[in-house]
Amino acid sequence: GFGEDIAMKQHQVNSLLDILFVF
Question: Which domain of life is it from?
């Protein structure tokens, strides 16, 4: 659903931020 899509996007963004902040 729409809420699920948002949650997925947020998870992807958080993962990318985690990767960036590691470097």
Answer: Eukaryota
Query: Measured between alpha carbons, how far is residue 15 from residues 3, 9, 10 in Å?
Result: 18, 10, 9
Give the tens place of pLDDT for each residue, 1-23.
788 899 999 999 999 999 988 76
Which tokens hold the place of 3? Answer: 């809420």
Report the residue count for the chain: 23
- Where do runs of H (alpha helix) occur along the chain? 2-22
The pTM is what? 0.49
